[in-house]
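Hi L., both proteins are below.
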Amino acid sequence: MPFIQQAVQQAAVRQAVAERRPACLRELAQGTDRFHEPRRTDCPWCGSERLRLRLRTTDLVQHKPGTFVLEECLDCCHTFQNPRLTPEGRAFYRRDAQDGPGLGARYDAKRHLAIARAMLPFGEPESWLDVGTGQARFPEVARDVHPYTAFDGLDEGAAVLEGVRAGRIEEGHRGSLTELAPRLAGRYDVLSMLHYLERTADPREELAAARTVLRPGGHLLIEAVDPDSRYARLLGRWWASYVQPQHLHLMPLGNLLRGLEGLGYSVAAVDRRDAHVPVDLGTGVALALEHSLPAADQPWRARPPGGLQRAVRTGLTWGSAPVVGAARAADRLLAPLTRRTRFANAYRVIARRNEDE
């Protein structure tokens, strides 16, 4: 019976892909160059024109057509996508983002509890806005740590409305933080950005908008990818945290701290250890193996794979499972060490909004 159910599900997926294929191919017939802005010649963080190529890659998760470049500033070490995707391009590549091996489930209750507990030394907030909240899974968990806090969410997608319907947040604001900030000015004691800044067109505009939304004395909680992680050099294009083409900016910790202070924040806490997510080796191996497998059926592919191709892919996927499993086990085994070294792949910053002068 499970085999029959699986076969039926696979047939339904193939049918859904076949129905979407004509529209997707018509969109791609116009080319992918239109999804990119003109290449800039200076660093968006410090303005330096001393840039170097850091990474050239393709979409390793969904395998949609296109090539993406990350450049690094030789003066401030800021890494950014160049040429950057247009809003239309970001929408195209974010669509169907659950396909492929990716980074695994973004909902991690244990990790979310740890993030929420990081705010305990700063008192019980009355109001908290989670930016880039999606379906508001983080506020749902954080409420267990802060039971007297009113949690709201903000996201450009419709998922934030699902978060309201499910009772995970009290209010859902759909749109961008920079556009909604004037309407939400001075409303929140805490604003969280969990792996959100990397996906924004201008991180400093987002930080300034967050200051507008926070009350004086309120706190901004940030978790972000650390581009200085040694895993980035070790794994190259297979480093999971590059997440191309979704990540537009990778900010060294020092740049972010100086940027916050320049915008009227005081840095209250910095932590690399607890922000580390032990997925680098496992996801790197999964991405590399997926890249070498026969293509899966996706609506942006011109032809569906044949029966033999599907069978070979299934066999190789099952055959490589022990290798991926061993790499993921190594991530967990090494985590106590890697989170205390420069192999840590993320950082957490808590900053206090200063009083207006």
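That was the first. Here is the second:
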Amino acid sequence: MLEVKDLHVSIHGKTILDGLSLAVKPGEVAAIMGPNGSGKSTLSYVIAGKPGYEVTSGEVLLDGENLLDLPADERARKGVFLAFQYPIEIPGVATMTFLKASLNAQRRGRGEADLTTPEFMRRVREASQRLKVDQEMLRRPLNVGFSGGEKKRIEILQMTLLNPRFAVLDETDSGLDIDALRIVSEGVNALRDPTRGFLVITHYQRLLDHIKPDVVHVMAKGRIVASGGPELALELEKNGYRDYAVEAA
């Protein structure tokens, strides 16, 4: 599914990713953990196509196609989704308007017809009920005045509607209380299937108690320095990253 091969990325002349290689299989949930500044968010932005990052070498392949050759909107149409650590606010754009425009733009890019209003409303209603998103939130401008938990629920609602092939969750547990964490995790788990992959970036075991990873990778100084099963996350929770930071030096 997703293959990152010897990826080197810099910003403003500073190397952030330094020969990173990673593979995520179909149906797999891969978690990345690592200290601040190790390049985790940079990896998520490069996969999604955020401008401003200079890829000096390497590849990011989705089903064999190099995503680095495609603009961000084309990557989205190919099925790439990024849930941000800090979702942005868009004043003046109602959440429902944003959701409908996003979904239909994706469909048009794939040669599909726009959804009818009744069908769109049905899909939103079903997904929003599962994620505890009330109708008042959907009428408000996107993320404006939302709590951290509300913003993350709206992002998972977007993901549910867009039905991506590969989703990157960049510290989606940031700012969530226990109830919001459970609701968001249930939304993610509902989308797990043998054809979809997830890359979950987090600092904390608590998210992985709800979203069970198949594999855990440790990232330090711009590359993967260790990989293992879910027990590796427990080790990191207990001992921290010190040993791996030394290994990356």
